[in-house]
Amino acid sequence: MSVATEERTGVRGATRAEIEARTLREDRWWLSPLVTFVVFGAFVIYATVRAFMGRDYYASPYLSPFYSPCLGDCVEGASDFGQPFKAWPLSAALIILIFPLGFRMTCYYYRKAYYRAFWLSPPACAVAEPHSAYSGETRFPLILQNLHRWFWYAALVIACVLTFDVVLAFRNAEHEWGHMGLGTVLMLVNVVYIWLYTLSCHSCRHAVGGRLRHFSKHPVRYRLWTWVSGLNANHARYAWISLFSVALVDLYIWLLAMGVIEDVRFF
């Protein structure tokens, strides 16, 4: 191996395949990153618009997951945990949205998805990337991906709050118990997938079973690790379903709050 070859780094490093062609693949390799770009990009735009709107997020008894918990200057009935940030001048969603958003943006699966779809790093397996250098996640801003474990802890709290919201959704508009509407069902389905996505996380798998030398001495943690490992196999699926479900719940509550539709009450 020549000295020049040994000194090459990044995407042209000595450990990379020396293929001058962009790719030798003949299938539609670009379809997957394109779909990811369109769908994930649409969600980011939608979530950003809704977060900055600061209105139409509460239709009693339903609270949008984008605004939960509502800790700012919220409309009457939306603040179940008080308003400690009432003086916050911007939308109440911007106080809390950083935590679920940070959890998803640093997620191992989502990293793969948007690295390929948005940064083309690489766009697909066996396809050359357009970048001339590669530093991994050792420099800003990608070094922030290492905060994923801490965002996971925050995501657990958010999942608990959303579960509490589902309990409150078994009321009518006057907050009388023993009622259920379509909004209740949508919120229930959403929180189930939120929990599946959160608990199937790689960080959860490490938290319950990591740093153990002998599983035989920790049977409870071994069972938890085995269960989470099973969930982890479908982590990508839960990531996408929960992405759609949280947007659908917010859209439904948005339309209710604006008076465009009426809630379907089952009992």
TrEMBL record:
Transmembrane regions listed in the UniProt entry: 29-49, 87-110, 150-171, 177-196, 238-261
Keyword entries, A-Z: Membrane, Transmembrane, Transmembrane helix
Protein's name according to its UniProt entry: Membrane protein
Lineage start: Bacteria, Bacillati, Actinomycetota, Actinomycetes, Micrococcales
